[in-house]
TrEMBL record:
Organism in which the protein naturally occurs: Candidatus Nealsonbacteria bacterium CG18_big_fil_WC_8_21_14_2_50_37_10
Listed Pfam families: TsaE
Subcellular localization: Cytoplasm
Protein name from the UniProt record: tRNA threonylcarbamoyladenosine biosynthesis protein TsaE
Lineage: Bacteria, Candidatus Nealsoniibacteriota
Entry similarity comment: Belongs to the TsaE family.
Gene Ontology MF terms in the entry: ATP binding; metal ion binding
Origin: domain of life: Bacteria
InterPro entries: P-loop_NTPase, T6A_TsaE
Gene3D superfamilies in the cross-refs: P-loop containing nucleotide triphosphate hydrolases
GO biological process: tRNA threonylcarbamoyladenosine modification
Keywords noted in UniProt: ATP-binding, Cytoplasm, Magnesium, Metal-binding, Nucleotide-binding, tRNA processing
Any one cellular-component term (Gene Ontology): cytoplasm
């Protein structure tokens, strides 16, 4: 508790074919630091290596002007 946020990382996994690719870039070190906030796009490509204590934010397309946002915590 009381962590001060130091870094914000945006990781786009669109071109990732295997989770190992992102691990080779230091992904575990980034997500293991409680002072980091990490936003991952195309997370389905690396879902099996995501930590259990993750906040999942999903944006669904409803129509041209509307998105539905759902938030779920797993921990």
């Amino acid at each position: 508790t009381g962590y001060k946020i130091q870094n914000f990382y945006h990781i786009d996994c669109y071109r990732v074919e295997k989770p190992k690719e992102i691990l080779d870039l230091g992904f575990k070190e980034i997500i293991s630091n409680p002072q980091n906030i990490v936003a991952v796009e195309w997370v389905d490509r690396i879902r099996k290596i995501m930590p259990k204590n993750t906040i999942w934010i999903k944006f669904d397309f409803v129509n041209k002007n509307t998105r539905q946002i759902s938030i779920k915590y797993t921990g």
